[in-house]
Amino acid sequence: MKKHLERITAINPGRIQWCCHDQGITPPELAEIIGIAQSNFTRMMTGEIGITFNQLRKIADYFNRGVLFFLEQGPVDTVQVYTPQFRTLANQKSHLSTKVKAIIERVERQRDIYLSLREEVAEVEEFKFEPLDLGSFYHRVLDALLKRLDAEGKDFAATDDGELITLLREEIEKLTKKDSFISNFVSRRGYNEFIIDSAGRVLEDCVMAIAQMVRTGSFRPKFSEVSFGKAGDTHDTLGKYELVLADKRVLSLDGKIDRLDYAVVGDEKIALVFDYKRRDTSFSWSEFSHGLDMQLPIYMLAVRNAADPGTKNVAGAFYMPIEVSPRKTTLGELLERSDNFEYKAKGVFNGKFYRQLDGGTDSGWSRFYSFRVTSKDRQYGNYAISGALKPNDFEGLLRFAEQKMIQLAQEIVSGKIDVSPYRLGQVSPCSYCNYRPVCRFDWQVNDYNFLESLSKSRVLERVEVVDG
Ligand code: SF4
Known about the structure:
alpha/beta; 434 Repressor (Amino-terminal Domain); three-stranded antiparallel sheet; 43% helix; binds iron/sulfur cluster; 468 residues
């Protein structure tokens, strides 16, 4: 106790002065707040006398600093003291009260602890209510079916529906027995068996839809789960797909295409890309133009540019739904709807191949693909919303996609990683980002990178401008 009454003389008055200035108070005001006589305080500031430990601690508490801060010699290191959290966007020191600063410092300390813990633990696994990944189950079964048909030398289009369903059921059974996770899943509860049975029926409908599609055109499934780049563990590969950046760095792209169909047109082999989606999915022109929806163009470019593609001609790429939910309908509409095809593939393609896609549509919307034939515009009817592209536009789209990838890669390697999440309509990546708990982006304080929503025709105008 006596010790605390001893006077400490090794105080750095320059630091007390600095803190007073920082807080916008004068030393006499501080003396009054702390309860030190003005004369003693002035003498302490000139180094004439010391102050007690309790008085020093009061000063330290007031400025929300440690006692040692005022015993250290030398001037204040402002870089250390003013962390980015204490600066405004213009990199200026903000005027915050001591209490607010104390809260920010505490939050920062907790955040540092959290980050150091995150480095030690693996990615937090999110709890999911669905123990079986149905999307992966669908993909594996469809892959197995196509490989089986290929191994037995059977043409998908020429195999009758009954045989297709038999083969599909056999492949489902094989996978269910072979895969220990799925077999455990099925044996655990009757309800799980029901899930697999339902998934099987979903696949039966989907395979029947694929059969109708391939029978109406000339394209036939050739590869299933074919990779490019370093995406390993596949039976077939198109080889490397690399792009050279301006500084001679090489951008290497990896991926796996769900299904690649071939047709022979004249003497040439033409490829058509399919990507299975659980639900109905459309190609988004807006997202494409901003480099957000690049999957289909990248797949087409991989076919065209990979080292060993089998053919460099690509007709187009489509998303195809696997699960189709029944729509609301009235009894009167039921008969009309019975002819509806709910698995329509949506994507983009070179319109000159429309006959190879769907040889049965001479007028109106194709039942199977997103294009319309009219007497005036032929296969380019309703061009603004159709997936068909005139050959020049199709080539422009692919060039634009390639340039966009190069531009994005160059921005990343040059260090452009601003915390500036996009917002397109109501959509922003923050809503599903894993880093949200530690991210400092706050929509109430910071601005989103607002992206313009664009129609197909506006994007094609941009494509033309880029092409120059
Ligand atoms: S939460 Fe943060 S890290 Fe995640 S997308 Fe938004 S800004 Fe980026």
